[in-house]
Design goal:
Layout: E1 4-10, E2 13-21, E3 26-28, E4 31-32, H1 33-36, H2 40-52, E5 59-66, H3 70-88, H4 93-99
Parallel strand pairs: 3-5
Antiparallel strand pairs: 1-2, 2-5, 3-4
Helix pairs in contact: 2-3
Length: 128
């Protein structure tokens, strides 16, 4: 099997993933997953597509993460891994799509409007 690459996005985070056959090692920005994401919850989020397909020990994953915060980065990485797994085996698409791993979450921060303190908050109205 050659190296499969895919891309995932969430908020302002972008994840580029390179998947090859291996022992289950996940490297993010040249660091191990436990070093890059110390939180067990974020590690679980990243591994969700692999756990769903029982292929945690099958593939080595190298990822480049850029932009966003740690939550957005972990969700972008999850999407990229899911897309790469679909490229490897087309039959996995149905189960991954059912769990929502292939859907781009379009929610992002709303911009601040002029004449207001925040995006929707307005300054306090004073009658007198």
């Amino acid at each position: 099997m050659e190296v499969i690459n895919a891309i995932g996005r969430r908020k302002s985070a972008v994840a580029r993933v390179y998947v090859s056959e291996g022992t289950g090692k996940i490297t993010i920005n040249k660091k191990d997953i436990t070093e890059y994401f110390p939180s067990a919850i974020l590690q679980y989020v990243v591994k969700q597509p692999l756990l769903l397909l029982d292929s945690v020990e099958k593939y080595d994953i190298k990822a480049n993460l850029d932009g966003g915060g740690f939550t957005g980065q972990s969700q972008a990485l999850r999407m990229a891994i899911a897309r790469a797994l679909v490229k490897i085996n087309e039959e996995d698409k149905k189960s991954l799509k059912k769990q929502g791993f292939l859907t781009r979450d379009a929610r992002a921060v709303e911009r601040k409007k002029p004449g207001q303190p925040k995006a929707r908050r307005r300054f306090q109205f004073s009658k007198r």
